[in-house]
What we know:
alpha/beta
Amino acid sequence: MQIRPDRQTLYWSATWPKEVEQLARQSLYNPYKVIIGSPDLKANHAIRQHVDIVSENQKYNKLVKLLEDIMDGSRILIFMDTKKGCDQITRQLRMDGWPALSIHGDKSQAERDWVLSEFKAGKSPIMTATDVAARGLDVKDVKYVINYDFPGSLEDYVHRIGRTGRAGAKGTAYTFFTAGNARFAKELVTILEEAGQKVSPELTAMARGAPPLLSGHGGFRDRGRGYSGGRSWN
């Protein structure tokens, strides 16, 4: 009631979950909603999406194997659920010879600025991050996004993979999906199919309520080979 009648208040949101809609209706009088694009949750079609069904104790070995396959000096952004996870995985990667740094809410602004500068310059092309720290990141030319931990919502999934993209080239997103994430399987399949991505039979089965079929072993303590082979990320 204290706002001038000729003033307009605008809300901007990349996605429009029920919580945001409720906040808008509580805060705005007679609101109008303008949609750019589709009202449905969709991923950028220019992003290649790969979903790998794994167990929790397979994740680190899967990550190392993936890095061995894709590491070419390009920027790689790895998402974790927790600050502790960021630091733990980053520490293990560095012990195994991978050029990694972490960024999250517990770090000071000076620390975050330094990590970002190292990442942007390619001096440390691997960066782990939580969703909170990654929301305001302005880093261009990220070639790969890896969801080490699946996020708590499909909106966050779309936000995360949207961080990848290069000028004139497609970005690629890799996701580790566990039995604990099964409640998201149906919606994830819908997003993948709408974007024209390949959906594995395992993920399709999980979307129908079947338990995941996992093979192989491995855990956090099993070390990878590191970034070796005479290549340089500089």
